[in-house]
Each structure stands twice: as structure tokens, then as C-alpha cells.
Amino acid sequence: MGGVLIDDRPFQRTDDDCNCIPAADNPDFSSAEAATWLDDDDIVFGIEVNGEARAYPRRIMEVREMVNDTIGGRDLAIPYCTLCGAAQAYFTDRLPAGIRRPILRTSGLLIRSNKVMYDVRTYSVFDTFLGRAVTGRLARRGLQLEQASVITTDWGTWRKTHPETTVLVESLALGRDFDFRNGRDADGPIFPVGDVDPRLAVHEDIVGVVSDSGRPIAFQRSAAMIALNRGEEVAFENIRLVLEAGGIRAVDAAGRDLGSHQAFWFAWSQFHPGTVLWPN
């Protein structure tokens, strides 16, 4: 149990007060030029779909933890688990017949120190890290959401690489003017995580992705950044890592996005036991 109440507000009623972690639906955003409140070294989660780019400042995502948005003509749910250091993006459109767009919320529950999300329309519960419905009507339909890549980087580099980007507006931070990553968790995870894979430190940043063969692989971010900046290939099966806007994206040989994201090692290895680790 995470100790917070469920966010059960209906779609597009997320400006209402709640005693919960307050999701944001179709949030307001501005141009890069108007975002004078952001410093160049502020961390953002960048998403690009069909040529449209948007930045989600970590300062805001630590408050909201869940955003339902539309980018490049596609509907997405964007959860951020502060405990796992993982911002993810799931497509919530183009679903099997008879399934409406899930509107995802924070449940207040945890599993292996990862937030649990649910669909406010059907009350189906999702494994947030895997994007898979595990209870309710959507679980009975076997719904597994497709991931889009999230680039973790700094605002200055994202803005320079994507000058046309939009960014969430400052008011969504609800007055917070800092982020707390690593400070709160300096002595390790604050909730139980089970057996920890000893190959890396629990809070080591990795970039995770699943190959076409179904094998999960975690790339140690620091080592991958060094190799890529040297011009070396970082690859596994069909996966190739590329530098983008100061962060890392996983693509295939044709450059198609493979839905990668950054996370703490303990989280990735908990949800993908037996994962391949690069370099090994």
C-alpha cells in the first residue's frame, strides 16, 4: 500500500481538488519560448509522435504522476513512478474492437515499489511497468498497451534539438519549484522490492526495452552514453541504441521506435527477472 487515496475523478475533471495524487487530462501546454520558468538543466521527459514533440518536466510529473494526453494524433497515457525513476508512455488508442480508450489514474497501491494504475472507466487494474491489465474487464480481454519511447534529458538540450516542442505549463506543478529525485531514496528503496538483482546498484539508471524475440534487455545508461559518444555500436538482437536530445532511444535497423524508457535497475530487474544486461 502506498498510503495515498485513489484518484477516481472522471475524465477531464482533473482540475478538481482531490486528496490523492492528481492526474492531469489533456493538460495545458505552451511553446518553448514561453517556458521561461524552466532552466536549461531541469530534467524533462521528452516524447515525439508523428513529428510532434512535447516535454513533461520532472518537477510536474512528480506531482501528477499520471497524464492522459494526445500527441501527433495519438492518445497516450504517461505514468511516472517516482519510486522507480521510470516515466513511460502507453498508446491508449487503436485498441481491439469494443474497448474504449482507458483513462488511467493512480490507485494509491504499490507492487514491488512500483505504482499501480487503473482505468477509471472500467476499474481494471494495470501493471504500470508492463502496461498490462491484470484485473477487471480489460484483463479478461487480455489488453496489453503498446509503449512509445520516453527520452529522459535536460530542457536545454531537448529544446535545442526540438525547437518546435511544446511543454506543460508551470501551473501544473501546483507550486512545487524543485524535484526530489534520489534525495528521498538516498538510503535505498523506501518500500519493499523483494530479492534485488546484484548485478547493478539498485538505483543505477538503465534504458530498458524488449526485443522482437521477447527478451528484455537493460542497457546501463552511463556505459551506453560513453560508448555512443565514442561512436561505438550499442546493440542487442534487433535493438540499436541512438543518442537523441541528450538522452537515449532504442530503434530497430530501419530506425523505427521500439518503445524504450529509463528506470532504476531494481525496478526493471524486478519486473523483468532474468533480463539481459548490457554490458555483461
Describe this entry's structure for a reader.
- The protein is mainly beta and 280 residues long.
- The protein has 2 domains: 24-171, no CATH class; 202-278, no CATH class.
- 12% of the residues lie in helices and 34% in strands.
- The chain has 5 helices and 22 strands.
- It has helices at 58-64, 137-140, 155-161, 221-229, 265-271; strands at 24-25, 29-31, 43-49, 52-57, 66-71, 74-81, 86-87, 89-91, 104-111, 114-119, 125-127, 132-133, 147-148, 151-154, 166-168, 205-210, 216-220, 235-236, 239-244, 247-251, 261-264, 276-278.
- Strands 1, 5, 6, 7, 8 and 13 form a 6-stranded mixed beta sheet that branches. The protein has a 5-stranded mixed beta sheet with strand order 2-15-4-3-14.
- A hairpin with a 2-residue loop joins β3 and β4.
- The radius of gyration is 18 Å and the shape is globular.
- The two termini are 35 Å apart.
- The mean pLDDT is 92.
